[in-house]
């Protein structure tokens, strides 16, 4: 792997790399704990400069036809695909996720979003409403300057999932990646310029919460889209409300994966593995509460234990490795705290549970059985490789228990009974659900949460609603009457 990790400069504003800010932002390779690059956090002047660039670029960008905007986005998708390996290697160094994963799920998913919304751009419009002789029509218009704020688990995917619909609708964007994974959003900015996007259409500033807060409250910002935790979501939503700004909130979860005793056990075990250990468990929609009907509990746990022997934990740059480190020391410590709580509250540890000693941030894939609903590990989002297996008897009972959480991001059901599958998903209080699979999120389908897990939807045609608004135009064909 010979990619350059240190970027040309820390920020990307008005079509060019810009250096600035005083405080250092070290970038750490999670597999070793080494600092592999050093960037700078933006100061207030840089944030203002980025917003000003986005504001200046927006009218001309929105004035292009949808075909023209879409062509640029689709060209960006092609460039991203051509550079998939390089981008995936960068993402692996920044996040610690195995190259085996980043090669298929990160820049590739970003490219899908650019292609999909590039295709939709030319189709956006309003409707015509006949009112007798008069009529009205609606125009679908851009919101203006949008702010995107990302989490650290899927950096270039999150940046692309926000930029693609925003830009397709004629908005411009200032994106702030997570301070833990600042690198790949800069590459998206480079690619968009190369694809022909005018300067200022997509800008990147680096920073932590303070920079995010300044972006969210800037008077020239029309919309804020955040991917992050529920506590941050509450703060950002409240701050955005002050200026009545539009929001999309993609927040955390504690999602249920319900496995009935008529399910295909092998597939259910695969789903539980994908939904708990992919990306070392650092996925918002993970099915971390695995409800298994009592009749197949032993078969499920036995097969899960056998399948866990296939874990290949090691240097994430090695394509044969299928389980990498966690993103940071802090995240490992959070997970260690939850594992200790699980043990203290009486859950049965059936796999893992140990931090791997030495350099880097390594935690074994961990499974607890006999977990009950009120244990901390069943109630709180852990955001690490910890699966909780809970037992259940009846359909009615499991639906009530699956929904008994403040979160509502995702949910899944495994059963070979078709009617039951649809009956159960209809009752899940969650934004994204799966039948006989888990965690598939193609760009064509809406993704997002209900309850405390979010507001709005990303992807699919639904995302267009969240990056544009309708203007109504009433057209009178006759005289205007008045009472006096
Ligand atoms: N629903 C989804 O699509 C989705 C996807 C990935 C991750 N997540 C969630 O993200 C969380 C993990 O990511 P994280 O630890 O980076 O989340 P986080 O909430 O700590 O940070 C998210 C982002 O918000 C910024 N931020 C923090 N305080 C801010 C403030 N006051 N104003 C503006 N911005 C602020 C951070 O700098 C970061 O860029 C988990 O809860 C996970 O479930 C959700």
Key structural traits:
484 residues, alpha/beta, seven-stranded mixed sheet, six-stranded mixed sheet, 38% helix, 21% strand, globular, binds nicotinamide-adenine-dinucleotide, betaine-aldehyde dehydrogenase (NAD+) activity, oxidoreductase, NAD, BADH
Beta-strand residue fraction: 15-25%
Structural class: alpha/beta
Total helix count?
A: 16
Taking all Cα atoms into account, the compactness measure Rg is 23 Å
Structure report:
The protein is of the alpha/beta class. It is built from 16 helices and 22 strands. The protein has helices at residues 44-63, 66-82, 84-95, 99-105, 107-120, 155-168, 184-194, 209-217, 230-242, 265-277, 297-308, 329-344, 376-379, 395-403, 418-427, 462-466; strands at residues 11-13, 16-18, 24-29, 34-40, 128-131, 134-142, 145-149, 172-176, 202-204, 221-227, 246-250, 256-259, 289-293, 348-351, 355-356, 362-363, 366-369, 386-392, 410-414, 432-435, 454-455, 468-475. Strands 14-17-18-13-12-19-20 form a seven-stranded mixed β-sheet, with helices on both faces. Helix 13 links the parallel strand 17 and strand 18. It is globular, with a radius of gyration of 23 Å. The structure holds nicotinamide-adenine-dinucleotide (NAD). Residues 149-153, 176, 178-179, 208-209, 212-213, 216, 227-229, 232, 235-236, 250-253, 284, 381, 383, 409, 449, 454 line the site of nicotinamide-adenine-dinucleotide. Nicotinamide-adenine-dinucleotide binds at residues 149-153, 176, 178-179, 208-209, 212-213, 216, 227-229, 232, 235-236, 250-253, 284, 381, 383, 409, 449, 454.
């Amino acid at each position: 792997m010979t990619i350059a990790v240190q970027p040309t400069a820390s920020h990307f504003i008005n079509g060019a790399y810009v250096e600035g800010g005083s405080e250092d932002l070290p970038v750490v390779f999670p597999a070793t704990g080494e600092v592999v690059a050093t960037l700078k956090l933006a100061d207030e002047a840089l944030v203002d400069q980025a917003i000003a660039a986005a504001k200046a670029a927006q009218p001309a960008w929105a004035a292009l036809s949808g075909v023209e905007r879409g062509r640029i986005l689709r060209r960006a998708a092609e460039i991203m695909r051509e550079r998939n390996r390089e981008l995936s290697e960068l993402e692996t160094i920044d996040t610690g996720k195995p190259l085996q994963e980043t090669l298929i799920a990160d820049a590739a998913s970003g490219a899908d979003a650019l292609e999909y919304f590039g295709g939709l751009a030319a189709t956006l419009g309003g409707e015509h409403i006949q009112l007798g002789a008069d009529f009205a029509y609606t125009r679908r218009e851009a919101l203006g300057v949008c702010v995107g704020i990302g989490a650290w688990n899927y950096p270039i995917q999150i940046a692309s999932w926000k930029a693609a619909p925003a830009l397709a609708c004629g908005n411009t964007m200032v994106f702030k990646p997570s301070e833990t994974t600042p690198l790949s959003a800069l590459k998206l900015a480079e690619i968009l310029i190369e694809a022909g996007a005018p300067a200022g259409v997509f800008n990147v500033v680096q920073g932590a919460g303070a920079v995010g807060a300044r972006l969210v409250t800037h008077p020239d910002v029309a919309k804020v889209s955040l991917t992050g935790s529920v506590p941050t979501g509450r703060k950002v939503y409240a701050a955005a409300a002050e200026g009545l700004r539009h929001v999309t909130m993609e927040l955390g979860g504690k999602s249920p994966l319900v496995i009935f005793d008529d399910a295909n056990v092998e597939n259910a075990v695969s789903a539980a593995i994908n939904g708990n250990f992919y990306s070392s468990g650092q996925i918002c929609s993970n099915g971390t509460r695995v409800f298994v009907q009592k009749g197949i509990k032993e078969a499920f746990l036995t097969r899960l234990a056998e399948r866990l022997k296939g874990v290949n934990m090691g240097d994430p740059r090695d394509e044969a490795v299928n389980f990498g480190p966690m993103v940071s020391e802090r995240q490992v410590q959070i997970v260690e705290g939850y594992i200790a709580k699980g043990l203290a509250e009486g859950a049965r540890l059936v796999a893992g549970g140990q931090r791997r000693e030495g350099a880097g941030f390594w935690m074994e894939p961990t499974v607890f059985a006999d977990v009950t609903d009120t244990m901390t590990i069943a109630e709180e989002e852990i955001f690490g490789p910890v699966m909780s297996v809970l037992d259940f008897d009846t359909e009615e009972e499991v639906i009530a228990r699956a929904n008994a959480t403040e979160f509502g991001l995702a949910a899944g059901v495994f059963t070979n009974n078709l009617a039951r599958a649809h009956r159960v998903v209809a009752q899940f209080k969650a934004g994204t659900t799966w039948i006989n699979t888990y965690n598939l999120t193609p760009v064509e389908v809406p993704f997002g949460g209900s309850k405390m897990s979010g507001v709005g939807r990303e992807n699919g045609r639904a995302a267009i609603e969240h990056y544009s608004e309708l203007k109504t135009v009433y057209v009178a064909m006759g005289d205007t009457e008045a009472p006096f």
